[in-house]
Amino acid sequence: MDRIDSVSNDRIKLAVKVATSSKHRRQTGLFFLEGLRLCRDAALTGYEIECSFVTENALEKALEDIEVILSASNRSFIVSTAVAEKITQAQTPQGVFCLCKKREIKHEFDFSGKYIALENIQDPSNFGAICRTAEALGIKGAITCGCCDIYNPKTQRAAMGSALRLPVIETADLKSTLLELSERGMELYATTPRSDADKITGICFDGGAVAVIGNEGNGVSDEIFSLCRKITIPMGGRAESLNASMAAAITMWEMMRNG
Amino acid sequence: MDRIDSVSNDRIKLAVKVATSSKHRRQTGLFFLEGLRLCRDAALTGYEIECSFVTENALEKALEDIEVILSASNRSFIVSTAVAEKITQAQTPQGVFCLCKKREIKHEFDFSGKYIALENIQDPSNFGAICRTAEALGIKGAITCGCCDIYNPKTQRAAMGSALRLPVIETADLKSTLLELSERGMELYATTPRSDADKITGICFDGGAVAVIGNEGNGVSDEIFSLCRKITIPMGGRAESLNASMAAAITMWEMMRNG
User: Fold this and answer.
1) φ/ψ of residue A241, rounded to 5
2) How confident is the model at residue B259, as a pLDDT?
3) pTM higher than 0.90 for the full model?
4) H or E element at residue B191
5) Which of A45, A243, A255 to mutate to test the interface with B (most CBs of B within 10 A)?
6) Which chain B residues have a beta carbon less than 8 Å from that of A89?
7) How confident is the model at residue A195 (pLDDT cuts 50, 70, 90)?
8) Helix ranges restricted to H, B160-235
């Protein structure tokens, strides 16, 4: 393994750009992951790792796990502590980083399965947390439109590896995608805090279904709202207080709990 | 209103210490809030504001809301942009800050109500998110033991004001607190990913109940676990992937959904 000791090395500069700019992620087709667990998850999920960077310290501590990462990497480098501090996006760098190649998602919809659709979710932590919960609960995939970048390191961190495994199907035209799924027999639901919507506890989610979660501030757009059955999470407390990822968690749970 | 233009002003130094150190929060009995909404929530919830700081820019933009804060404040200062940048804990400061006095919680337990107990929750964002969801769902209060500081600005931000309103009852001896509540007829539950626990969907939460959520890494401690009926969230996907705040949300939702 070659060494990189200089923070102005070209590959280090590339790593920082890919980590911090979605434009660079689009241009290069790469994304940045950090931490033993996430990098290992990428390797185990079959992502091609263009380049991995590890500190000597990390190598000593976790050789076995790191070998999994190295063997999935086209190139690997030992980096100095100064370089690790340059490229880290975390407060306490673990000394394990990689640049992975994005891959195309080819998802065959399961028309009898449950999906979550995310419209304009803007907070990377919310986006990641929703992916994590979706995977945990056995949701088949997330359909996204206008959301923040799934490859943002914050999204990936909040998703704890699930964003690498869960099918995340991006669409520029959510309306058409939903209408197609509806034609294939899937029910469409939109969540809202409005109390005139149907209570989610009264819904029988027994077939294929998609539940749409809207933007953190504005909720589901009118265009999408009009296509869907409106459902609400009845609350004993202050309705305004339910965060998008929590609303998504309870919605997905209700879809799955009797399924 | 007096002006503070110097970042080395004593009150500004105090604000930074209170914002960044739980030791200083304990010593002074103060805590730090930031942002129009949170500071306004503190004023409306009846907290005594020792000192508020606003920029001229913020004052122009939101005079009406800021007046609510100023009238609950013992002292108020206009601060320069440089001072606001010094004290902010956010990436984009809103220019509204305050130092509030902590107040003692005198909570009369409702023995037929639903409570969440948090044992050693260490992540401020999780802690705050759980408070927010608890309030939204109508949970009566949170019993906490060994958790991170509720007055950490990150906790308060994630709670979006709910940590100011929800009764948060801190105990140094969770076992005794739970046993007392059990003697008063409340059911005790501990959540676990273990599949030999009772499925939460099979539990009838019709009386008073406390559900314990454990530490992010280690779950509920053995001592507390042994006092409680063990319940689990059945998952179709990867059980390890459910984050503490999401597990808490689904648990609280199940406690309340038929209540």
Assistant:
1) -85, 0
2) 61
3) yes
4) strand B187-191
5) A243
6) none
7) confident
8) 162-165, 174-183, 222-225
